[in-house]
Amino acid sequence: MGWDRPKWVVEDELGQVVGYAIAWRAPWTEPGELIYTLVVDPKIRGNGVGNALYDAVYQWAVQVKASRLVGYMKESDERSLAFAERRNHVKERHSFESVLELATFDGGTLAASIQEAERAGIQFITLADEPGEASERKLYELYKITHLDIPGYSGDFPWFEEWKKWSIAQNGVRPEWIHIAKDGERFIGVVTLQQNEQTRAMYHEYTGVLPEYRGRRIALALKMLGVQTAQACGVPYLKTHNDSMNAPMLRINRDLIGFRAEPGSFRMACELR
């Protein structure tokens, strides 16, 4: 239950931390599942530190009656992937970031999708146009429904206050950067942008369209509104995350708009006996 985060550290003879592990789960995480992170200083790998940390995580997971452990590892980190596979982890999913360089971006006729949707009766606003809790709760319901279709998504959806904290109230998210598609008074699609203070670049924090409105290029229109917002803000590039199994979103991001995939990570899972 809750945000329990047990932590383990390994120190060298000088008292410096050379490795650590963290295990955690949120209240809405799938029952029995524990997510963990394990890091060892590259200079001392192969000396048993990783083994000791993993054993501590594993024993704790068994003690609290977890049924599976899940870790995320870069696809380019062959050594860590081999470490996990030797401990009965299997690759469940592949996710990766995609980048759109705005200085060289030419959307061609893609922006016409905005006018097409408007001619079909869809209205585009931002959360700044209709602020307040009533709109936020409509947005929450939209997120909640569309999250179910994210490949690999499991567990329950967080309650309203927790969702708000980790989505539209995050640092770098502004109401004017939350683009919403409306059919009448119903919120039927959204694109939320978040800006990184250090790089000044923007991130597509979320994209979602209700199932019954898909196939009408509304997601593309929302994406293009996001691109236009980023360009108006003078940011150097846009980033987003993709799952290799999410063919409809890959079609928009990669094939139509031209996001370039970067090396990603594998979700590695181990069933506990």
Automatic annotation (TrEMBL):
Residues 1-106, 129-273 form the N-acetyltransferase domain. The keyword GTP-binding does not apply. Keywords: Acyltransferase, Transferase. PROSITE patterns: GNAT (PS51186). InterPro entries: Acyl_CoA_acyltransferase, GNAT_dom. It comes from the Bacteria. PANTHER family: N-ACETYLTRANSFERASE, UPF0039 PROTEIN C11D3.02C. This is N-acetyltransferase domain-containing protein. It comes from Paenibacillus allorhizoplanae.
